[in-house]
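Lab notebook, design round three. We kept the backbone fixed and only want residue identities now. Task for the bench partner: fill in a sequence for the structure below.
Input structure tokens:
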């Protein structure tokens, strides 16, 4: 209390009343300091317990998730308890009621922000841990695309919840705010329905995972290429002729496609060939299978197979099926097998006939 304030009090109050007010103020100030000190000590004790005993408890778990969350939350726990002490101490100070409302309101906003910041760090660490686990299961490429989206959604959800709690504390009508936001969202949705359809389809592709980045897919239109990127609005595909296709996600979700890399990257090749009528079919089958096995990139398990599939106009139609380790080498392996078949057929006197047509001309009658 300064001398001017004491003189003013003494001019209006009797000495006994002035001493009583001073004692009440001193008592309330002491209570506020005591509350603040207790919560500060509680914050220090909580940090010490978490650092000493919390880290020991986390060693009993196989996952490092609890260690990472604990490391990020300890500073925020200390801030949260300290701000809570300030908030409670403010109500014990002998200040004007209007000042108490203003300062306590500001401290309440800060307290809510600190609490939701703590929750956000825990969720962020949980997302990072999940992505690390997906990376070990070879799903990291698509999960990495979802990480920024998941973080932003979590942040928006927490910010909206914190805003509602703060408005409720200051006795604002939350329903009118929610209604206004709903009408605004409806207007935005109608204006950007195509963009939203692509974004929702992007979420569907990321969650359903019909293909991953790096997979080779064949579209309904016949185009084949490798997936370069899966975005929220579109997917980029590099074709075999080194051209980039940008396809809206909604079209990919509503069309049929073939993932050549699923369930694994092995690919099955087929070679159709015709041999002359009168050829020994079983001998031709053995030559085809032996020819395929002679090529290094052809897998022995599952083994190559040859079949007699049809009677052609001028040849017996044969089919050779074989497997390679990856779809990336299917084209070159087919070329090597075709070249070797020509030599093996020539060595074994197996004829590949040309289409022939016999024309019979009759002499006209006079």
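Proposed sequence:
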């Amino acid at each position: 209390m300064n001398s001017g304030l004491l003189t003013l009090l003494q001019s209006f109050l009797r000495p006994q009343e002035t001493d009583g007010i001073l004692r009440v103020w001193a008592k309330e100030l002491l209570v506020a300091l005591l509350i603040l000190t207790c919560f500060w000590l509680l914050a220090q004790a909580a940090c010490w317990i978490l650092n000493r005993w919390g880290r020991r408890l986390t060693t009993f778990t196989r996952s490092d998730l609890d260690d990472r969350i604990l490391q990020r939350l300890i500073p925020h726990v200390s801030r949260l308890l300290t701000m809570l002490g300030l908030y409670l101490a403010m109500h014990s100070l002998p200040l004007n009621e209007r000042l108490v409302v203003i300062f306590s309101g500001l401290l309440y906003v800060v307290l809510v922000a600190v609490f939701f910041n703590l929750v956000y760090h825990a969720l962020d660490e949980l997302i990072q841990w999940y992505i690390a686990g997906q990376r070990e299961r070879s799903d990291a490429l698509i999960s990495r695309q979802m990480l920024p989206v998941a973080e932003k959604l979590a942040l928006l959800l927490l910010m909206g919840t914190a805003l509602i709690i703060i408005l409720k504390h200051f006795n604002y009508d939350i329903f009118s705010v929610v209604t206004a936001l709903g009408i605004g969202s409806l207007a935005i949705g109608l204006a950007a329905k195509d963009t939203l359809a692509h974004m929702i389809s992007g979420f569907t592709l990321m969650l359903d995972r019909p293909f991953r980045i790096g997979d080779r897919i064949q579209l309904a239109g016949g185009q084949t290429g490798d997936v370069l990127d899966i975005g929220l609005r579109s997917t980029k595909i590099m074709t075999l002729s080194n051209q980039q296709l940008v396809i809206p996600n909604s079209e990919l979700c509503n069309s049929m496609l073939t993932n050549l890399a699923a369930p694994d990257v092995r690919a099955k090749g087929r070679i159709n060939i015709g041999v002359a009528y009168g050829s020994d079919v079983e001998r031709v089958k053995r030559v085809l299978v032996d020819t395929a096995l002679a090529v290094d990139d052809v897998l022995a398990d599952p083994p190559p197979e040859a079949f007699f599939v049809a009677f052609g106009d001028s040849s017996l139609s044969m089919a050779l099926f074989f497997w390679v380790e990856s779809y990336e080498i299917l084209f070159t392996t087919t070329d090597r097998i075709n070249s070797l078949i020509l030599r093996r057929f020539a060595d074994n006197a197996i004829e590949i006939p040309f289409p022939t047509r016999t024309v019979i001309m009759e002499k006209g009658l006079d």
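Keep this in mind before ordering anything: The chain has ten helices and eight strands.
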